[in-house]
Design brief:
single chain; mainly beta; Immunoglobulin-like; Laminin; 4 domains; 5-stranded mixed sheet; 40% strand; elongated; disulfide bond; EGF_Ca-bd_CS; secreted
């Protein structure tokens, strides 16, 4: 394929490197970064673009994107004119303008390498030590960008709308609960075109419904994400979604976190026979008669209200009390 900016025409390779040995921090085999990328991005000519490639890591490692180099790109190294890469967010920033040496309807190749780095020093396979500056995996991403013109403005592209979780937000769920999350998108001001795809990147057990139109809103389409969580899922999980419309324009990704916590009642925090009830990582204790406190740890002092009259002496019991009356007085409270 002939590419713009005089690039292309030569061979290059795609090589993935992953260390699959068991990690000391998770006690599981190391996993590689995952990405939500397209084969071709259609980026409107004569516009400013900030193309974010969603990347997640199943182990919670720090993920960084780099321009591919050497044999990993060869003829397409640095083939996107004037582009710069934010390595921490994996965002490519460029102007698809003639002034920046772009041409209308031309193809441009992009070759990136994704690497993951542990948050703290860990060992792999029980021996090899890896620090936060050591890469654990090397995963290539290669795709094309085409620069067509569209009869709409640069910002008229798919966008996520309510009830989609906010970008960067956290959904807190307790293990063994079933998650149901809706992601919805419309086409901004470009009402003549529909959303054709909502792609979702997330945990392997996250199920996606088919794309449907919101019956209450014109030109709004949605997917339902469902996950029947287990105790093995406890931890932080990143989900990213991306919408594409009939013009093949891609909107900004929407990424959020699902935090799955263990059932706090499993540790039996409630004392003295109290009943524990949990929800979303929090718990409440329903105390049996005679006890109080957050975990029912306090024996209620029934003598505190001084129920014994006429110099009677009060002795506290569980959910009860007894009065020892002085001579001449009787009944429960020494009243007569």
């Amino acid at each position: 394929m002939k590419l713009g900016d005089g690039k292309g025409g030569g061979p290059w390779r795609i090589a993935t490197t992953v260390d699959l040995r068991s990690r000391s921090d998770t006690q599981r085999p190391n996993g590689s970064p995952e990405t939500l990328s397209q084969a071709i991005y259609y980026m409107q000519f004569e516009c400013h673009h900030e193309l974010q490639i969603p990347v997640v890591d199943p182990d919670g490692d720090k993920v960084r994107c780099e321009w591919a180099a050497g044999d990993d790109c060869k003829a397409v190294c640095n083939a996107l004119p004037g582009a710069r890469l934010d390595q921490d967010t994996c965002t490519i920033v460029f102007n698809s303008t003639s002034a920046a040496s772009f041409e209308q309807d031309q193809f441009y190749a992009v070759a990136l390498t994704i690497r993951d780095y542990p948050q703290t020093t860990i060992s792999l396979g029980g021996s090899a030590s890896k620090t936060p500056s050591d890469s654990l995996s090397s995963v290539p991403i290669q795709f094309l960008i085409q620069t067509p013109t569209f009869p709409v403005g640069c910002e008229d592209k798919p966008r996520f709308v309510s009830p989609s979780p906010a970008d960067g937000s956290e959904v807190l769920v307790q293990a063994l609960e079933i998650i149901n999350i809706t992601v919805a998108a419309d086409n901004s001001a470009d009402l003549s075109k529909k959303i054709t795809t909502i792609d979702v990147l997330g945990p392997v057990d996250l199920r996606q419904s088919s794309l449907t139109q919101d019956p209450g809103r014109t030109n709004t389409f949605q997917k339902t994400l469902t996950w029947a969580t287990s105790e093995a899922d406890v931890g932080t999980h990143i989900v990213c979604a991306r919408a594409v419309n009939e013009r093949r324009k891609t909107g900004d990704p929407r990424c959020f976190t699902i935090e799955i916590v263990a059932d706090p009642c499993d540790s039996q925090p409630c004392q003295h026979g109290a009943t524990c009830t949990s929800s979303q990582g929090n718990f409440t204790c329903s105390c049996v008669a005679g006890y109080t406190g957050g975990i029912c740890e306090i024996d209620i002092d029934e003598c505190e209200s001084a129920p014994c009259l006429n110099a009677g002496v009060c002795y506290d019991l569980l959910n009860n009390y007894v009065c020892i009356c002085v001579p001449g007085f009787t009944d429960k409270n020494c009243a007569t």
